[in-house]
Amino acid sequence: MMSQIPVVTVRHLNHAFGRGELRKPVLFDVDLDISAGEIVLLTGPSGSGKTTLLTLIAGLRSVQDGSVKILGQELFGANKQQLVQVRNQIGFIFQAHNLLACLTAQQNVGMSLRLHPELPVETRVSRSKAILEAVGMGDRVNYYPDNLSGGQKQRVAIARALVSEPKIVLADEPTAALDSKSGRDVVDIMQTLAKQQGCTILLVTHDNRILDIADRIVHMEDGRLARDTALVGSERS
């Protein structure tokens, strides 16, 4: 069930690349709240600042100007330990699956759980197999990435992102390299598992075929939030 408590709070966020004469502003006075349990899609043309905003929320890029609070932790001026604590509560899914070719599907998923040293090896293995079963890859746990299709690799990437039951999942164009059926399967799995785990999803996409999974669609233009639309009932069908 969706909570009104924001897990992501962005205020007056500005960001630029480069310095001096080469400095190029890419985000302008961005304000955004995302509540626990929401699925929010971030849309807009290439170069509008979507991925930059995502990486700032992820703690993968330093906040230059403004405020980004994730699960109550302010990222502006945060130290390395604070950033690691935030990242450990976030699952990441990217357009490229980024699986390690030398590891099986189960081992790739289990890599996420190595961030939680309190879990014994047996627990990490059993949880990895269980989440692979949940994404329809139960018969591929011992397969290497080279023996999996694009859609299957992305399912493994979703399993890796969700196995540690993160509070937030951040996804950057997860369906861009997939055909329509595989892309639909991937977002349906994300939606189902995230709702079961009660986590929040922020997903960057150009894919109009998946807009119906959203609770909200936030549209960016030229580094600014241009529209923030809540979807209800018939708008998703």
How is this structure best described in words?
This protein has one domain: P-loop containing nucleotide triphosphate hydrolases (Rossmann fold). The longest helix is centred in the C-terminal third of the chain and has 18 residues. The chain contains 6 helices and 10 strands. By secondary structure, it is an alpha/beta fold.
Proportion of beta-strand residues: 25-35%
Strand order of the largest sheet: 6-7-8-3-9-10
CATH topology annotation: Rossmann fold
* Full CATH superfamily name: P-loop containing nucleotide triphosphate hydrolases
> What is the global morphology?
globular
Quick one: biggest sheet? 6 strands, mixed
Order of helices and strands: EEEHEEHEHHHEHEEE
Tally the beta strands.
10
- What is the CATH architecture term? 3-Layer(aba) Sandwich
Indicate the CATH class: Alpha Beta
Spans where pLDDT lies below 50 across 5 or more residues: none
Number of domains: 1
End-to-end CA span: 20 Å
Question: With helices defined by DSSP (H or I, 4 residues minimum), what is the helix count?
Answer: 6
Rounded average pLDDT = 90
Helix content: 25-40%
* Cα radius of gyration in angstroms: 18 Å
Q: Helix- and strand-based class?
A: alpha/beta
Can you lay out the helices and strands and say which pair or pack?
Blueprint: E1 6-17, E2 24-35, E3 39-43, H1 50-57, E4 65-70, E5 73-74, H2 80-87, E6 90-94, H3 105-113, H4 121-134, H5 150-162, E7 168-172, H6 180-197, E8 200-204, E9 216-221, E10 224-230
Parallel strand pairs: 3-8, 3-9, 6-7, 7-8
Antiparallel strand pairs: 1-2, 1-4, 4-5, 9-10
Helix pairs in contact: 3-4, 3-5, 4-5, 5-6
